[in-house]
Write a structure and sequence with these properties.
The complex is a heterodimer of chains A (266) and B (292). Chain A has one domain. Chain A is 69% helix and 3% strand. Chain A is built from ten helices and two strands, in the order ααααββαααααα. In chain A, strands 1-2 form a two-stranded antiparallel sheet. Chain B has a domain of 44 residues. Chain B contains twelve helices and ten strands. In chain B, a hairpin with a 2-residue loop joins strand 9 and strand 10. Classes of the chains: A mainly alpha (266), B alpha/beta (292). At the A-B interface, helix 7 and helix 9 of A face helix 4 of B. The structure holds adenosine-5'-triphosphate (ATP) and magnesium ion (MG). The site of adenosine-5'-triphosphate has 12 residues of chain B, from strand 2 and helix 1. Magnesium ion (MG) binds next to helix 1 of chain B. Chain B: Keywords: ATP-binding, Cell membrane, Membrane, Nucleotide-binding, Translocase, Transport. Chain B: InterPro entries: AAA+_ATPase (IPR003593), ABC_transporter-like_ATP-bd (IPR003439), ABC_transporter-like_CS (IPR017871), ABC_transpr_CbiO/EcfA_su (IPR015856), ECF_ABC_transporter_ATP-bd (IPR050095), EcfA2 (IPR030946), P-loop_NTPase (IPR027417).
Amino acid sequence: MLEHIALGQYLPGSSVLHRLDPRSKLVGLLIFMLFLFISRHPLFLVVAIGIFIWTFSVSKVPLIYFFKSMRLIGIIIFITLLLQLFMNNDGEVLFQFFSVTVYSGGLTEGLLIGGRLFILVGMASLLTLTTTPVDLTDGLETLFSPLKKWRFPVHEMAFMISIALRFFPTLIEETARITKAQMARGASFSHGSPWKRVKTIIPIFVPLIVQSLKRAEELAVAMEARGYVGGEGRTKYRQLYWKGLDTLVISIITAYAVLGVLTRLL
Amino acid sequence: MEIKANDVTVKYMVGTPFEKVALHKINFTLRPSTYHVFIGKTGSGKSTFIQLLNGLLKPTEGSMLIGEKVVNRKTKMKQLYHLRKEIGMVFQFPEHQLFHDTVLEDVAFGPMNLGVGKVEAEKRAEESLSLVGISPSLYMRSPYELSGGQMRRVAIAGVLAMEPKVLVLDEPTAGLDPVGHIGMMELFNHWFKAKEGRSVILVTHNMEDAARYGEEIHVMYDGERKLVGTPSELFTKETKLNEYGISLPNTLSLLMELQRASGQALITDHFEIDDTVDEIVSFLRKDIENNA
Ligand SMILES: Nc1ncnc2c1ncn2[C@@H]1O[C@H](COP(=O)(O)OP(=O)(O)OP(=O)(O)O)[C@@H](O)[C@H]1O
Ligand SMILES: [Mg+2]
């Protein structure tokens, strides 16, 4: 049962999107999201949809995976659409269905809000589908590093996240191992009342916590023994490389943002 | 208790790109009341095989016969429950399974799971704790306050307290010091001899242990059982064993080297250090006589 858990939703691949620097992906996504709601000009919306479709096709992510990652948010978008259809009474009456009247304003609003939400979450999904968790953390660390001026522990936070990511599979393996050992001692996870079943978690939980604490301590000692000191002046083994492609992506997104502002003002 | 594998195949992560055949159509019977040893290089399927014995793992294809009980892919977990009573299993680093407040309670956990009453379970716990050499002064301590070696003994007592007929041991002495290692191996042997009808199934990378305690040695390689025999039958097949990534016990490889270097035939079907010394002494005597 535990063998099928994947961390995050990263899909290995070598598409253009996979090869982009995580920083340009993150900044690009941020700008895209911020400006998405700025203008409702048809030209701007077409451009936004175009960018979304282009990103998706260039990512080479299979459609199934994409929709799987959108399942939950899909429901929310659908509900938004319904609410708009039933509650909004701007514009002309489109049709009446028993006591429900649907107005044209409701339809356009619903589609606008729902569609933009879909694109927004879709873009974020594409980012996590094509970026390893480690790259994401690295990217976030560099982007947030200006905060260090105000003593925000950026490096430590990023380091914590990457350690957590690193040890997640170990934890899963360990859970499977301890579960087996307790089952061999006659512990049963399918017998008895709900209360009894909750109690069967203790023989797994306690050793797991103890092991994790021990491992954390060993890791800390090992790091200190090798002279680890926090963030200031530390270089990285894994370097991020900003390429021409990254500049191009940021330029396109900037153009999109400018278009958004212009169509809003005009 | 007889254990039989009929065309058993075990695959991990079926239906994913990572699918892995860990056991490939194995077919054999483990004699009852015998000390079995499984050897084989890493990844050969030893741990996978022993997990079949008490239903922690079910065959992907084929079936196991464990005593009277048939286990195949369709067998329900609930039906496997009572196998745990008959087959005691000690995993690598068993001390990682301790969780109760006190040593005594932890050891009694197994028997109580089998439906034994609290009083009886604690009586059994005390018996097996004294068997593994944990003194009564430690019974009320937290298992986490013990040394690593003591913790392991407590964990093993927890399995013995379930009074299994078959004791399955997966590298039980990993990480112990040499004296602790011998003590532990002697403990298992003592348990094995103490009562008629008991079996041990030991997985080990230690050839000295395999030679000393094993009555039947099984060689696993690439998901199959390739060789089986008594120590003296098996360790005379040096070339075959090398092919399967297995070395000889040190006592034996010393004699083999001596035999090769001197060109004289030596008796090489005993593995105890005393036998090796005797053989070398008699070799030296002959050598001196020949020179004189
Ligand atoms: N939970 C698992 N998921 C996927 N593959 C596994 C799993 N457990 C074992 N395997 C694979 O099955 C094969 C047999 O593993 P097994 O643990 O039985 O080997 P072993 O003989 O016990 O090795 P070792 O001497 O290292 O303990 C190995 O190739 C291993 O990678
Ligand atoms: Mg193993």
